[in-house]
From TrEMBL:
Site features described as Transition state stabilizer, chain residue numbers: 34, 133
Protein family according to the UniProt entry: Belongs to the IspF family.
Catalytic reactions on record: 4-CDP-2-C-methyl-D-erythritol 2-phosphate = 2-C-methyl-D-erythritol 2,4-cyclic diphosphate + CMP
Subunit annotation: Homotrimer.
Protein role: Involved in the biosynthesis of isopentenyl diphosphate (IPP) and dimethylallyl diphosphate (DMAPP), two major building blocks of isoprenoid compounds. Catalyzes the conversion of 4-diphosphocytidyl-2-C-methyl-D-erythritol 2-phosphate (CDP-ME2P) to 2-C-methyl-D-erythritol 2,4-cyclodiphosphate (ME-CPP) with a corresponding release of cytidine 5-monophosphate (CMP).
Organism: Aliikangiella maris
Span of domain 2-C-methyl-D-erythritol 2,4-cyclodiphosphate synthase: 1-154
Entry protein name: 2-C-methyl-D-erythritol 2,4-cyclodiphosphate synthase
Enzyme Commission (EC) number: 4.6.1.12
Length: 162
């Protein structure tokens, strides 16, 4: 069994739509990023890469590469999933905390879990997504950006020879 942790922060601004966990959140300022700015999926990618000792998202998909400009982070997540599957790992469970003063995440959590289940080929019962504010403290409390933490447990496939 191996554990991985991912953490990402993006600032509000620019003119991209706000996309969190593959869900487009209407009528809200988006996040500044090279990609589509999906801060939640970036934290999940980093947790998975960390668990498998495969580095981090920037190593695989550099933000200096135009190929990844405005890229759909669900594509990146599926590529990360393939990297860990190629090393014969299965995902046991994923736990995610969105730290955001805004938007209110609760209406979107169920769709985010469905997107993750689809892209990572796991069950909904293996995924937990939750959110908290910072009670108006700090840069998140001032609504300057969003942070996301993710922890994941992976295990070698039972029939793996690795
Ligand atoms: N962006 C957010 C933040 C919080 N929630 C939900 O509200 C609950 C209370 O938040 P506190 O920061 O006061 O602990 C939290 O447990 C979440 O259910 C949310 O949906 N979106
Ligand atoms: C996702 C990538 C893709 O180029 O760019 P950004 O959208 O800037 O996001 P970040 O969380 O800084 O991760 C780095 C990159 O891999």
């Amino acid at each position: 069994m191996r554990i991985g942790h991912g953490y990402d922060v993006h600032a509000f601004g620019g003119n991209k739509p706000l996309i969190i966990g593959g869900v487009k959140i209407d009528n809200h300022i988006g996040l500044i990023a090279h990609s589509d700015g999906d801060v939640l999926l970036h934290a999940v990618c980093d947790a998975l890469l960390g668990a498998a000792a495969l580095g981090d998202i920037g190593r695989h998909f550099p933000d200096t590469d135009q190929k990844f400009a405005n890229v759909d982070s669900r594509d990146l997540l599926r590529r990360v999933y393939q990297l860990i599957a190629d090393k014969s790992y299965l995902i046991s469970n994923i736990d995610i905390t969105v730290v955001a003063q805004t938007p209110k995440m609760s209406p979107y959590i169920s769709q985010i879990c469905q997107n993750l289940a689809e892209d990572l080929a796991i069950g909904i019962d293996q995924i937990n997504v939750k959110a908290t504010t910072t009670e108006s403290l700090g840069y998140i409390g001032r609504k300057e950006g969003i942070a996301v933490h993710c922890v994941v447990i992976i295990e070698k496939m039972p029939d793996s020879n690795d």
